[in-house]
Structure to design on (562 residues):
């Protein structure tokens, strides 16, 4: 039977369109438990490839015949080997091109909405890592917020849309993934903005992203306004786009809130986080649609694949916005924190421009889920 | 420093799954208790060789990096797990530091690689296989506390020493696999 290649883009369509898929993940058990391809209707079997070197006969009965079977490994080689063995045993089977490495890098651009006067807002969903980046387009210009390191995805998208990238923002100094913001700005001549309180140690030039800053995308129509909202980091800044969308960075997610400890200062910043979530955001219009910089679980995706929800609904439903006592809040966000993201200290160094790892090293640093939230 | 091994396997430049496929094959020619050094450049080989070794029962000793090459050390599973210990003078892991501090020595008879990746500070290394030829390095009147991973090799070593006229020999049980205190590395 045949071995067929499946790309990360094809897997992404299956996630977004809620299709079924059976994943035979042949990485070792720790790696699988730490991080896997999540889908609403996916089933899994995890057997390390090195337990299958003598044959796949034992697992063949566990592979379904009524849905696609996709063999997944870290980089591709082992999945191809196992897929060939499964094929020789008489089954059609897929393998993931580029393995989890390519899954981690894949970005799916999804249109969130049209904006005033013909503008558009896109969310770039990095399904494998749970990162969300944004592009605001209007009248031949574009602004990008929280770009991940695959800068060509953004610059090519801008070319396709025939727009010039003018403004590039990072809501904060990221600790879970390597920012592409500075490099996009360098390549396009755009202005790169970073909150100065997060940028004290950076070794490159940037434009300070201060509370109340506004920029216009296009001649007049779309306004992006900055709102200082510390807590995940001391500089964390949110954006209000076109008076309709609230880009919360890593402060507020759909089903969780930001963790205050990734720069090592949980105790100090918990008060800021409380202030942002329970006062500043409360003063905003409840009809704003929240667009975070991450999702943690697949259930946070809407039916069209976007990650977006009305602020008023989050006030009602998000556990992190409903902890009445400050004391309980403090405990929640400092006591039971999940493990920190892989290599988060190195990633911060990269985003400060202090170290410049090559692409393979960057991939290695970004392995695993983002873990920026506390539930 | 380089670590003495029995067999070396070059997997440099090979991507997953080849380092494991080749290691599995190479293990067929390694004798029980011997050390295989796998040279690899694929970073994924660290977690995978460790997990594979554990799943098939080999002893994964450790990995060090030298000039951009990962050197993995694996000891082929031996028959030293459940063997009956015959040497009568024994003490426990917990007692050995105190006892040896009164002029005795701790003699670690594991392979050099095992010793390198973690041993009791101040212990001496003479692998079991070299003991017979290196008896002159030891003092017959000194108390010798013999330790290995699980107590089996040290049992044999203690018997050997007694046979050669060493009178103050003690086997330490259960051995380094259950050692909970600090370890010193020499890699």
């Amino acid at each position: 039977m045949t071995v067929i290649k499946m790309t990360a883009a094809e897997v992404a369509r299956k996630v977004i369109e809620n299709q079924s898929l059976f994943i035979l993940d042949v990485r070792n058990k720790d790696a699988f438990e730490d991080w896997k391809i999540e889908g609403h209707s996916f089933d899994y079997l995890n057997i390390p490839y090195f337990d299958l070197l003598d044959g796949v006969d034992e697992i063949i009965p566990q592979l379904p015949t009524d849905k696609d079977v996709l063999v997944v490994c870290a980089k591709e080689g082992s999945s191809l080997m196992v897929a060939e063995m499964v094929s020789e045993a008489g089954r059609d089977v897929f393998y993931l091109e580029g393995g989890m490495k390519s899954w981690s890098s894949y970005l799916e651009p999804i249109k969130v909405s049209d904006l005033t006067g013909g503008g558009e807002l896109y969310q770039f969903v990095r399904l494998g890592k749970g990162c969300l980046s944004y592009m605001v387009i209007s009248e031949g210009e574009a602004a990008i917020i929280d770009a991940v390191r695959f800068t060509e995805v953004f610059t090519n998208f801008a070319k396709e849309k025939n727009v010039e990238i003018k403004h590039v923002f990072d809501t904060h100094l990221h600790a879970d993934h390597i920012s592409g913001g500075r490099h996009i700005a360098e390549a396009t001549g755009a202005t790169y903005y970073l909150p100065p309180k997060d940028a004290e140690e950076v070794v490159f030039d940037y434009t300070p992203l201060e509370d109340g800053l506004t920029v216009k995308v296009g001649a007049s129509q779309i306004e992006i306004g900055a709102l200082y909202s510390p807590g995940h980091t001391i500089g964390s800044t949110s954006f209000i786009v076109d008076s309709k969308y609230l880009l919360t960075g890593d402060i507020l997610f759909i089903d969780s809130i930001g963790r205050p400890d990734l720069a090592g200062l949980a105790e100090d910043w918990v008060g800021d986080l409380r202030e942002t979530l329970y006062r500043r955001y409360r003063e905003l219009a409840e009809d704003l649609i929240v667009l975070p910089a991450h999702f943690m679980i697949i259930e946070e995706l809407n039916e069209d694949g976007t990650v977006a929800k009305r602020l008023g609904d989050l006030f009602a439903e998000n556990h992190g916005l409903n902890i009445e006592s400050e004391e309980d809040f403090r405990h929640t966000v400092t006591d039971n924190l999940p493990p920190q993201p892989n290599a988060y200290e190195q990633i911060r160094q990269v985003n400060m421009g202090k170290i410049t790892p090559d692409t393979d090293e960057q991939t290695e640093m970004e392995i695993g889920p983002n873990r920026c939230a506390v539930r | 420093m380089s670590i003495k091994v029995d067999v070396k396997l070059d997997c440099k430049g090979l991507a997953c799954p080849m380092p494991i496929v080749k290691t599995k094959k190479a293990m067929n020619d390694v004798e029980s208790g011997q050390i295989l050094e796998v040279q690899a450049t694929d970073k994924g080989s660290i977690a995978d060789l460790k997990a594979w070794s554990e799943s098939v029962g080999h002893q994964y000793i450790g990995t060090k990096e030298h000039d951009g090459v990962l050197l993995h050390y694996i000891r082929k599973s031996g028959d030293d797990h459940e063997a009956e210990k015959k040497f009568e003078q024994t003490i426990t892991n917990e007692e050995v530091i105190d006892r040896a501090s009164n002029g005795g020595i701790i003699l670690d008879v594991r392979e050099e690689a095992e010793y390198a990746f973690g041993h009791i500070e101040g212990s001496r290394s003479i692998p079991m296989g070299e003991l017979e030829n290196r008896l002159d390095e030891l003092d017959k009147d000194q108390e010798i506390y013999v330790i290995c991973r699980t107590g089996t090799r040290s049992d044999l070593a203690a018997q050997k020493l007694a046979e050669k006229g060493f009178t103050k020999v003690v086997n330490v049980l259960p051995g380094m696999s259950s050692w909970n205190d600090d370890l010193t590395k020499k890699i």
Q: What stands out?
A: Chain B touches chain A at residues 15-18, 20-21, 24, 43-44, 47-48, 51-52, 55 (CB under 8 Å). Strands of chain B lie at 7-11, 35-40, 59-66, 69-75, 90-92, 105-108, 124-125, 144-147, 169-173. The CA atoms of residues 92 and 115 of chain B lie 19 Å apart. Chain B has two domains: 7-75, 90-178.
